[in-house]
Structures are given as C-alpha cells and as structure tokens.
Amino acid sequence: MLRMGGNVLSVFIKKFLAALVAVVTFGVITPSHEIWNSVFEIEENRYSEVHVLQAPIDLEDLLTQAQQQSDLKFGAKIQPRIQERYAKEIFPAYQQKIEQLATSTSAISHKPSGDYGEKIFHLYDASTNEDILRAHVRVEKRPQEGYYFTFHYHTASDQFSSHQDIGEIYWSKNTPPKWLS
User: Fold this and answer.
1) What is the distance between the alpha carbons of residues 7 and 10, in angstroms, rounded to a whole number?
2) H helix intervals, the chain
3) DSSP-derived pairing of the beta strands 164-172 and 146-155
4) Spans of the chain, pLDDT less than 50
5) What pLDDT score was predicted for residue 8?
6) What's the pLDDT at 13?
7) Residue 163, CA distances (Å) to 92, 133, 156, 160 in order
C-alpha cells in the first residue's frame, strides 16, 4: 500500500514539476516537451521492466482475441460461409504459432484491414510495439475456378519477407464481398 501511495505521489510530483517549469519558462518548455522524456525515462523504464517480469502469458486471452479479430475481419457476409473450415483447418495453425511465439508482453492487434487488405491480426510485443507474427488472408482469383481465400503468416525471424502458407478456402466464382462487411 505504501509503495502504491509512493507511485501516486511520484506522479503528482512529476506533474507539478512539469507545470512549474512551464510557468517559469513562460511556456517554452511545456509538459509535453521532449526534455521530460529524458528526465523521467530511467524511473519509468525500471518500473515497466519489473512489471514485465511479473506478468504471466495469458494464451487463452490471446487466442480468444485472435479468434474475435478473425470473426470481425470476415464480417457477417463471409464469416458464416467459411467459419467451420476456418476453425478446423486454418485457425489451429495460427494458434500453434501464437503459442510458440507469445511472451508475457504479447498482445493481439485490434484493427483488421477492410476492403481487400490482407491483415487479420498481428501478434506484437506491447512493450516495444514491434510485430512478432502477422496473420494474413489474400483473395485470389483463379481462371476457370473462381475465388479462394489463401491464408498465410509472416514472422519477425525473417523480417516478414516470406509467406508461410497455411491453407485456402474456396469462395465461389462470384467476387467475394469486401472484408469487414
């Protein structure tokens, strides 16, 4: 309890000091000025490192979020038609990679791309905002056959340069709706 109170007091002192400097310098150094990043950087880094070391990996939550982002990506028009095959054939591969690559600071992105963009979700390190895994789907038109959704992923280990194919789901000969619709 005392430590928590100390953190609250520390934040108050920082805000007070920043406001005081802004007043004394007639607004030249504002509370959002770059100087404050270097002044308070050491203490904030120490706190976040301690926090990171104590956090367990919540794989269940990551997988739930990944599934939710998939459902959001496919939208009400595509999702019902591919849901079963996606759950049985495609998502287990994404699940395996999430389980393999996730750390205590991992998170799932919350904005799949719309229109015909590829992004379903990204697994990223929340402390650095760097992607770890990019789960994508591409619409492919094959002459005389129709449209397929081809699922793949990229990883940071090769700077996201190669496609790791997972599988594909046939749509039809008609153009599929845009994502998120």
Assistant:
1) 5
2) 2-24, 35-54, 59-85, 91-101
3) antiparallel
4) 1-5, 33, 37-38, 41-54
5) 52
6) 67
7) 17, 11, 12, 8
For residues 86 and 71, the answer to whether their CB atoms sit within 8 Å is no
Q: 108-112 long-range contacts, Cβ below 8 Å, gap at least 24?
A: 108/62, 108/65, 108/66, 108/69, 109/69, 110/65, 110/69, 112/69, 112/70, 112/72, 112/73, 112/179, 112/180
Q: Could you tell me the two tokens for 123?
A: 């697994």
| Number of H-type helices and E-type strands within the chain | 4, 5
Nearest to 105 by CA among 54, 43, 69, 63: 54
Beta strands at 146-155 and 130-142: parallel, antiparallel or unpaired: antiparallel
- What contacts 54, CB < 8 A, 6 or more positions away? none
23, two tokens = 């007043």
Question: Residue 138: what pLDDT?
Answer: 95
- Token pair belonging to 115: 């229109």
User: What is the distance between the alpha carbons of residues 108 and 46, in angstroms, rounded to a whole number?
Assistant: 25
